[in-house]
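Subject: Interface between my chains keeps coming out wrong

I've been trying for a while to get a sensible model of this assembly. When I model each chain on its own everything looks fine, but I need the whole thing in one frame so I can look at the contacts. Pasting all components below, labels as-is. Any help appreciated, I'm running out of ideas.
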Amino acid sequence: MPRVNGTGQRIYAWFERRLQLEGPVKEAALHPVPRNTASWWYVFGSAAFTLLFLQIITGILLALIYVPSAAHAWDSLNVLNHQVPLGWYIRALHGWGSNFMVAIVLIHMAQVFLFGAYKFPRELTWILGVFLLLMTLGMAFTGQVLRFDQDAYWGLGIGASIMGRVPFIGGGLVHLLLGGPIIAGATLSRFFTLHVFVIPGLLLLFALTHVWMVLKLGVNEWPMPGRVVRRATYVEEYNKLAHEDGIPFVPGAFWKDLVFSGAVIAAVAVCALIMGPFGPGGQPDPSIIQTVPKPDFFFLWIYAVLSYLPPALETPFILIAPIIGIAILLALPFYAAEGEKSWHRRPVAVLVVSFVAVAWGSFTQLGTVTPWSPHMSAWSADAIPAKFLRGASPLVRQGANVFQDKQCRNCHAVGGLGGQRGPALDDIATRMTPDELRFKVVTGGGNMPAFGKNLSPAEIEALVAFLDTLHPPNQRPAVNPVNEVYTSTHASGGEDIPAAQGAPR
Amino acid sequence: MRKMAAVLLASTAAVLCGCHAYQRGEVSQPVPRPSAVLDFATLYGQNCAACHGPDGANGPATDLANPEYLALVDDAGLRKWIGSGMPGTQMPAFAKSSGGMLTDAQVNAIIAGMRKRWSRPGALEGAQPPPYAQTQTGDAKRGTQTYQARCAICHKQTRDEITNPVYLALVSDQVLRTMIIAGSPDIGQPDWRHDSVDGKPATPLTDQDINDIIAYLDGLRNASPGFAGTAAEPQSGAPAR
Amino acid sequence: MDLTNDEHRLTQNQDAPTPTGIPPLNELARHATSGEDDRVVSRRWLLMKAGIALNGLVGLALAVPVVRYIFAPWRKDSSYESWISLGAVKSFPAGETRLALFKNPFTRSWDGPTDNVACYVRREEADKFQVFAINCAHLGCPVRWFPQSQLFMCPCHGGVYYADGSRASGPPTRGLFTYDWKVVSNELHIDAGQMPTLSNSAKLEKPEIGEGDCTCRG
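Reply #2:
Try treating it as a single job with all components included. I did that and got this:
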């Protein structure tokens, strides 16, 4: 009990007598931790915890204005953005806080994995951590739905379509997910419930338990090669380490947590200030079909994976892979509860983390570029570079019109503009002869639709004439050496170029 | 420790640099419905630029930045071509009533924007251009001679060849007529008054001349252009059948 | 007993009596349980078990309506679908494919714009229609019709379909979903009401419409 002198301390004592928190708080704050855990590598968990509170506070602030109704959610977001003073900033804080939180949770997870922190006796801490990651991702997805715009709407459509692939009960699951037959008011209401009540409640409960266990079991010591975890001896060894070469958690290690958390919150604040809130995009009206739905940053990799899977593998992969992945994460501490903690002695662990990071980064990059998506307005928006039309014959110019008009551009880029679904055609004439071009256009194949039925013979000829001019000036177009004589019609200025060697003249 | 601090600094710097790419946080306008967009630059850029060029010229399709063309064609004509497409050409229909994506207000905004940006008052002042729309049929035989006399000088080389039936299958008589009357400055096609790329004045072509030339060119069209009809041999100057 | 031991340990942290002399509350609790004989304790344990059982029963009874409430949307496809008009037949020119909009028949007043559902009507001949759902058969994104190339293209993962709805390229494993249709007093009606997925039909199986085209199976 503190000595009582002065009003402040009297008030403190009054509360302390009733709350009796001083003991446990002191115990938690002053418990010894191994000296080398007071490291900048150990700050991510506390930063994630701090971000959770930032999210709770900004979330409550947004709920003062936001209307979880399909008819009004989008309007209320725009009111927040444009009419409520600094409403845009609170939205930006919540959005950027979400991105930072997912990122920090992922970094935290990679760090504790590499430091072997999931081993005995911290298995349950890791398992709760896996659920915390899933719930953080769940918050990110449901939050994207609450930003009720076209991306949210069609993102739900993708979710429903994935549900619809579940055998036997898929149809019912779709209804359950959407709260009815279509994406509508009921859908937004249930995602609001998940985002505001269910997941945050569980998240807070799990996070507090997670922290409780960290305090009770002690923070994972800095792994040393050769210091092997054994169930029989570990606790004793750890206590010895913490007491003999330890420092009190506060302030020895805690000041770094404080500094890093402060820096992360400051980074969120700066990003929010400079880059502003996310969306909302266009009105969630499904009759607006001029839309190109795209998921938020942390789901881009899934978007990319879904486009690269062979169709036959798609359903099994979508339905089974997440279950296997989660099962592996949950089983990890039981499979490897003992043994080496140091990454120097765990090459497989380091490889796994590197592989996952590289794969995730590549898929996210691909998801940013979406080379598999046709550019829906390329045919009417992306001009043909002037160099391809300079001195072009009237027929070639009509061919260029056909090229645009028939939406070839939606999948094939020219001059760096256009879709990337198919190959860019800037030098297609050097790779394919007119006959090959004609055949390809008519019959399609290799992921290209057949255009034979949709183009008149004249359109095909004009198109081939245009495509045959697409080659660098110093490189002549491809010719069939057997039965095609190189003539000047194949290239503007073709007379300067000698005929292909060995071609009959 | 020091390494960690360096990583922290670097990441903060990266974040700050990333932030610089953007203007500012506060957003100004809700995203409008696509049908509510009436800004000419957006509408033209999304719907027209691919074929008519980003500035109305230098695309494969009609030169819209040609003041003579804009003086020749009236709003009703433009509305028809934009709204329901131009039969016999690659010009698609853009109005919702014809299966396109644009509202009538958007079509009007495009027409108004074209006139505002590219019209030149008095582009055809004092001149008596032949009417935009064809009023009477021409004579193909006479057209052959007129073509040889007035067009073939330039249109004899392959790269300028317009007598190719494949080309003729993809353009309508109206396109040919518009091209002859208003010319196309971006590719050096002179108007009906001039003779050459440099715009040397000549005896203007009469309505009759133009009808004849089009009748001659129409005679070169055949039922199944393409496949057999696309041989590489030049056909310019070939007599009408 | 474990409980009292725990309690004892917990209260150990509290130092001597507070200045006013009031003992801490859990100190009082400890006094209350001390000095009781085993029979009383076992009777109390029995009563507590009875209390738990009572709560379990009540919880179970309440779970039935709760589960029923949660699973309320889980219904047969047909209970969501009904015939709905897309407007006069003459608004769909023969030989063309047009976008058509309708209000979803199953709707709530707070659905806002989300119950405006789009579909594509292809009028092959005067009295022959195909009505396609807007949703791509891959992952439900809105496909767009391009009359110039006679293709439907999906902006998400690049699924492409021909004019008759059959798959042309990309990740979809089947053609576009189709709705049942009928013409009633010169109006085109379709049987619609829910978002089509691989499990939720846009239409019931009706072989004579698909013309044996297996890609359009519901």
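Reply #3:
Confirming on my end. Chain A touches chain C through 77 residues (CB under 8 Å).
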